[in-house]
Amino acid sequence: MNNPVFFKNLTPAKIIFALSTVLTILCFTYFIKGFYYLLIDEIGAKDLYSRWQEQQYIYRGLYPYDIITGSPLIDPKIGAITSGGYPPWAFFSGFIFLPPIPWELTRWYHGFLNTISLVILAVFAYQIGKPYGKLKAWFTVVACLSISSHSTTLAVGQYGIIINALLIGVFWLLKKNYNLSAGFFLGLALLKPSISALYFFILVIRKRVDSIFVCGLYIVIGSSIIGVITQVSPIYMIEKMIKVSKYYVNSGYSGINVLTNLGIDPATATILLAIVGTAVVISLFYLFKDHSLLFLFAITAVIGRLWTYHLVYDNVMLVFLLLAVIDLTFKKPNKSNILILTLVLLSLSLPAKVTDLPFAQIIQSTIWVSVFLYVLIWQKEFKEEVSRAFSFSKF
């Protein structure tokens, strides 16, 4: 009998407060699990261990992807390299992210780097939500931090959280027209190009020539230095990277899986989607070049997530889509925007065990593509509304 009264008293502020409380608990739960595997568990941080192995061979003057099983150059203290696919400049960045320290200390060092990176994300999210009030700012922060793949990224020791922080740095620096620093930060973020490569075209469409130059220079100098250290050419390293990566690119869920299911080999599918993804990004950037930087980051994140190999931990890259949808919903809190926000939040915050299911991955990808198209359409309509209002105000 009291249900009508109960629902009548459910104001938007109370709903946001309740959701923020739940998401706060959820994000702390994810962080406790993720940091436990990163720092303590013996089987945790397995991807980080692979990166540590690779970097140790760099410090010994050896190109890691030559040190495969059966190689006479294997150091028993390090072991053979059994995974990879990272570009040569990533090993140059490894001087920062994987210094010459013991493995156990490396785990704690990455615990520190990821903590700083999560704080940067929280500050960025707070800035997005702050204009709408402290309650909505709190919601924005915990919504971003409660992405379940944060836990997975921490647990296996992936780079996604750190790269997001670097991309946020690029965002802030571009906003302040610190173009040289923005290019340097993007160069660092290209540690994992499958996440960050398409952001380069934001620099292009915004005509940040200084940023483009510094980013390119970082790639060239970094690759050249690694070539000198290992006594192999950058071209050889790129060829080796492609050769190594083709064995696992079909193991994730992205557009590559769609093409390989049609009979196209993984290497061809990767190249084809790289071309298509780049063309789509450039076209969209040209059409929406005058829109907000957050919007450009959001569409880049979606295309980047779908264009090439990714596993569940790389879902962290979609935080920019989530932020753009949150900003859109707070600006215009209609039913369709609230529904879109709900779908994106659910797709990113559900536990990895759920999202690892094949049907869940299909649903996730469908949601991301649908929201991507929705945001594009809304941005176009919003710009037209503003243009009409501006034209009307002249009379």
Q: What is the CA–CA distance across the termini?
A: 56 Å
**Nearest-integer average pLDDT:** 88
Question: In DSSP terms, counting alpha (H) and pi (I) runs of 4 or more, how many helices?
Answer: 20
Could you give a short account of the major beta sheet? Answer: none
- Fraction of residues in helix: over 70%
The shape is globular
The total tally of domains equals 1
Rg to the nearest angstrom? 22 Å
* Beta-strand proportion: under 5%
The total beta strand count reads 0
- Contiguous low-pLDDT stretches (5 residues minimum) are 384-395
What's the SSE blueprint?
Blueprint: H1 3-8, H2 12-39, H3 46-59, H4 88-97, H5 103-129, H6 134-145, H7 149-156, H8 160-175, H9 179-189, H10 193-196, H11 200-205, H12 209-230, H13 234-245, H14 255-261, H15 266-287, H16 293-307, H17 319-331, H18 335-349, H19 352-355, H20 358-393
Helix pairs in contact: 2-6, 2-7, 4-12, 5-6, 5-8, 6-17, 8-9, 9-12, 14-15, 15-16, 16-17, 16-20, 17-18, 18-20
Walk me through what this model shows.
This protein has 395 residues and is mainly α. The protein contains 20 helices and no strands. The chain has one domain (10-388). It is 73% helix and 0% strand. The chain is globular.
What does this entry show, briefly?
With 395 residues, this protein is an all-alpha fold.
Q: What features would you highlight for this structure?
A:
single chain, 395 residues, mainly alpha, 20 helices, 0% strand, globular, disordered C terminus
